[in-house]
Write a structure and sequence with these properties.
Elements: H1 4-10, H2 12-23, H3 27-33, E1 39-43, H4 46-61, E2 66-69, H5 72-76, E3 87-92, H6 99-110, E4 114-119, H7 125-129, E5 132-135, H8 148-164, H9 177-187, H10 191-199, E6 203-208, H11 213-227, E7 233-235, H12 236-240, E8 251-256, H13 264-276, E9 280-284, E10 292-294, H14 304-322
Helix pairs in contact: 2-8, 2-9, 3-8, 4-8, 4-11, 8-14, 9-14, 10-14, 11-14
Length: 345
């Protein structure tokens, strides 16, 4: 069975290449807009919020600028003025039409912020309202779950961080990403075995850390959307601070790991602990000691999340089909989500 979700996962190498070509020329514009802005604040919801998490890590690790999440409810529910004269505010929305985020961006400008919109729709309300719009080139997405639009947002975050870095070129190797993702999605190495392991356990959790935490959170969200399972997506540091108590022989744990970097040792050491509690372990990018190994990308840690999430999306799509569900149209969801009911009017 071929699904739209799977087709769009396979389109990601081309979508990534188009997005790099579209956004690389905008890095000088980002750099100029950010002059004098000491802090970078990100606002988003859903999958876009997970892309923003990757952006926050990159902004601090690569660019050396303090970064944080900006709560849209401060603007839209509490309507409090905040001094943002020191800030670059980045709002992410794939459609660019989520009313809460459009309002948040407008509010940030009135509070003195310079604003950037990251969206897949160039003529959207979010793009029109921003000082600068970074328009990804994923193309139209037909399946409800965000796949290629999400990976395109990750590319935008990498190029944003590069633009904010003290020295341009801090994010190296982005031109290799399309080929690395193409190898993963065409090869599908380990996908069927991973799906079998997940089908054999009624409960699932996903964990990662550092730059890969955004991938863990996104895959947990995708599993909830398409497979109708409550799935925590946790940093392994948080997992060890209490939630690990839920791990037993009914759990399949997905561990997301890059091929290198400072978090790899901790993620590798987590596997035997999970198995000692009875869990089956699926490693995405991690082979040591796992029950199923899904190949990760041949990319350095800083760019690995773009490939890791593509591999994970294939697992999610396969699991949904294995459960007899339609991953293209998850129950009760639609492409443009409004946070509050009155926004839909």
């Amino acid at each position: 069975m071929t699904t739209m979700m799977r087709e769009e996962i396979l389109e990601q190498p081309a979508a990534i290449a188009r997005t790099v070509a579209a956004l690389r020329p905008r890095t000088d514009d980002v750099r100029r807009l950010a002059v004098g802005r000491r802090q970078v604040l990100f606002a988003a919801r859903g999958s876009s919020d997970n892309a923003a998490t990757y952006g926050r890590y990159l902004t601090e690790i690569v660019a050396g600028r303090a970064a944080a999440a900006l709560a849209p409810s401060v603007a839209t529910a509490y309507r409090r003025r905040v001094d943002l004269g020191h800030a670059l505010v980045v709002c992410l929305s794939q459609s660019g039409e989520t009313a809460e985020l459009v309002e948040t961006l407008a509010w940030a400008r009135t509070c003195g912020a310079a604003t950037v919109a990251v969206t897949n729709v160039g003529d959207s309300a979010l793009a029109r309202g921003a000082d600068l719009a970074l328009v990804t080139a994923a193309g139209p997405e037909r399946a409800i779950p965000a796949t290629k639009t999400f990976t395109a947002q990750l590319v935008a975050m990498a190029l944003l961080a590069d633009a904010l870095a003290p020295t341009p070129g801090a994010v190296r190797g982005i031109e290799r990403v399309p080929d690395a993702v193409a190898e993963l999605v065409r090869g599908r190495s380990g996908i069927e075995r991973a799906v079998d392991v997940l089908l054999g356990r009624p409960r699932t959790l996903v964990t990662g850390r550092g730059l890969g935490y955004a991938v863990a959170a996104e895959l947990a969200l995708k599993l909830e959307e398409t497979c109708l399972r409550p799935v925590p997506g946790l940093s392994y540091a948080d997992l060890r601070h209490g939630p690990i108590a839920i791990v037993d022989d009914r759990v399949a744990a997905i561990v997301v790991a890059p091929r290198d970097g400072p978090v790899l040792a901790g993620l590798t050491g987590l596997v035997p602990e999970l198995r000692s509690r009875g869990a089956a372990v699926v490693g995405i990018g991690l082979a040591a000691g796992v029950d199923a190994h899904v190949a990760g990308p041949d990319l350095p840690e800083i760019l690995a999340p773009i490939g890791l999430v593509a591999a994970g999306q294939l697992v999610v799509e396969g699991l949904a089909r294995g459960l007899g569900l339609d991953p293209d149209a998850p129950r009760g969801l639609r492409k443009v989500t409004q946070t509050d009911p009155e926004e839909a009017g």
